[in-house]
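Quick log. Single chain, no ligands specified.
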Amino acid sequence: MNFEYFIARRLINANGGKSNISAPIIKIAISAIAIGMVMMIISVATGLGLQQKIREKVSAFNGHIIISNFDNNASDVSIRPISTKQDFYPKFKNVDGISHIQAVATKTGIIRTASAFEGVILKGVGKDFSWDYIREFIVSGKLPDFKGSLNNQILISEFLAKRLGLKVGDKFSTYFMKDGGNALPNLRVFSVSGIYNSGFQEFDSNYIIGDIRHIQRLNKWQPDEVGQFEVFIDDFSQIEQKGKEVYEQTGSLLNTKTIVQKYFYIFEWLKLFDFNIMLMLGVMVVVSTINMVVALLVLILERTQMIGILKAVGAANWSVRKIFLYNAFYLILRGLLWGNFIGIGMLLLQRYFGIIKLDPASYYVNEAPVYISWDYILLLNLGTMLVCLLVLLIPSYIVTKISPVKAIRFE
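-> predicted structure:
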């Protein structure tokens, strides 16, 4: 049997490895590691969760990469049409990592009801539109079906529905201005098929989703003319590289822009979370390490006579140090187990019950999202354990300075 491990186990099992002197110090050290792990797990899970959820919401309304005409239009409205007769449509085969491409068009209008009116952007979509991102936002009704003949079904946000007094099944009039001149606007009567709530105020207050053929008729476009293409990629971390590759494959008459470029202010804000996460991890590791150093020093001082006896019978300094490092490893492990149990438990409560609510006007979500992955949880545990043990090598060096004769006489 390993000599050092045997002695360390005896120390741990003897009265729980604690005396009246070291008991409170050890409890504080274990609690500090547990609390630190809880804070680290929560900070990483909520930081990554918020980043992921906001990226999903922005891409739900824009795709990851937008292909459009070169023009001076700074709004979200389609001005000049693009032909769908492109090499990259309906399948983008020249760039790897492209999961989907869809054709859309947008046009501004004014919804008029008996009690209110609101300016909106009608986003026209067709049978190639992916509803995967939008589906989770539905709060009532159903998704409209644009695979058959032209219909008047509309998906409207909960924000607009409340302001206009609309519910599923209601019909409403929408006016679209004609280009050039003072002619009477075009009128379309739509019906509410479903109501969504993305929690993203910038989109919820503006967008309604309908059949792209309405916009094609309003703009007098051909059936093969659209406003822009939205491209979805498999790996968001490669969006910058994929944006460049898509740009190179779309020709000189078309422009491409990633959502990171279009909504740079949002993604710059999201980058701050990376700094906050790293700061939190650093603070928690430092606090945990300091408490473990104090606990280890107390254990060494408490066992001074034992150290002297072990040295007197021929134990090497490194062997004695290993005894206390084994002891410290046990304390660290206990703290990590409690920290993981509490931290993961709190994340699961938040995921399934949404206890912590957030202001969507500030955070773009209604409740704090969490991202749970065993990868980062394992890395946090291994990293914390490794850093603590490496730092504990320093105070364990005190063992080498203890004289066997003086230690045996130590009271």
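The chain has a mean pLDDT of 89.
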